[in-house]
Amino acid sequence: MGRLFGTDGIRGVANSENMTIEIAVAVGRAAAYFVRNSSELPQIVIGKDTRLSGYMIEESLTSGIISMGLNVMKTGPLPTPGIAFICRSMRARLGIIVSASHNRAIENGIKLFNQDGYKLSREEEEEIEEIIFSKEAERHLAPPDKIGKVTQVHDAAGRYIQFLKETFPKGLNLKGVKLAIDTANGAAYHVAPHVFSELGADVEVFYNTPNGLNINEGCGALHPEKISAIVKSNGFDMGIALDGDADRVILVDEKGRIVDGDGILYIAARHLNSKGNLGCSSVVGTIMSNYGLEEALAREGIRLVRTDVGDNNVVACMREMGINLGGEPSGHLIFLHHAPTGDGILAALRVLSVMRQNDVPLADLLEGYIPYPQKTINVAVAKKVPFEEVEDIIKVKRLMDGRLKGIGRSVLRYSGTEPVARVTVEARDKELCDMLARELASVVGKKLGVNNELSG
Hints:
Blueprint: E1 5-6, E2 9-13, H1 21-34, E3 43-48, H2 54-66, E4 71-77, H3 80-89, E5 94-98, E6 107-113, H4 122-134, E7 150-152, H5 156-166, E8 178-182, H6 192-198, E9 202-206, H7 224-234, E10 238-242, E11 249-252, E12 258-259, H8 261-274, E13 282-286, H9 291-299, E14 303-307, H10 311-321, E15 325-327, E16 333-335, H11 344-358, H12 362-365, E17 374-381, H13 391-404, E18 408-414, E19 420-427, H14 430-448, E20 449-455
Helix pairs in contact: 1-2, 1-4, 5-6, 8-11, 13-14
């Protein structure tokens, strides 16, 4: 058995790879053993999205946990950030979400949160892996009269809905706002509509009939063009596209234009900064945050701090530097003054709050932010050799960065889940952007590629 945890928990195709009954039981046991000395109540919260395989993985995790003598509290389908919230609220030792987020329905995943609602660190995940591989937990199974119990948190969705509503400013509501919401047939199907309608919005919901096999299928945050078309043709004030576990969101303005995580960061950062509530007058993004965002924020006196890709990296940097706002272009937005993890519904509420406080439509809040054209080319590689060890690649990139100084940038990184190098270039001029991306990708392909395979 190789490493289980990847860049965002454990992922795999259901009933194969890392997502079998046997592995889920082992993870449940190891997780319970990992928190054996916690001062919190002897219970672990488990939730899931709408995937068919969620039943199987949830029950297997539950069996592993209660065999160690801890209790399990099930929430049923609930967004990933909802599990982080319930974990804190119930004083549980851990929270576990069974979800593969924005991935295909045939895949599933296991993500763990600590008692404060933060995702486990890489070191903590490695400790759990070691418990699994060493079978240490199996040597400490509970005696028959100490096996744990299972209960259902029947009001979990209601608790989470109330928490979200309370983040909206007192004295404001959404009366008269017409919203189109795409829940991706996912975990937010029974939560998101209530949050916005109970605040007074006129809500219409789309892609909201989960059947276990249609999560993320041609809809949601990966396909914002769907909700964009609906907004344009039906006169909505805003479109909201969530992903399968609702930890990310992409918005659409009243003109049908797509607003990604960078656009949301720009709106939130300007607003918080104007109120004196932006920690360190800074925002945390990633190496993939658009250069146009960095320029636009700089004009407002706001610094963009970049980390490696991944919301775990963003949150870690925020906590270390005392910054309360961060996110990724993909739509992971973290408002640490409200919650410890990315939350798509919360992010949409933040933007709606700014709209209402300023009495302007979404499009107006984006004035001053012009994203640069961006081109990403994927190069299949035989081995993930550090780029700095390949002289020809570094030479070309150094020359390119000189050419792009002040008008763009280039980024080289490896995928966290595939043998792929991602070559990204941004520039004010689209033709220049595309040309330089192809040039750099060509060099990477020649030096590291598998049969010079390029895509993108």
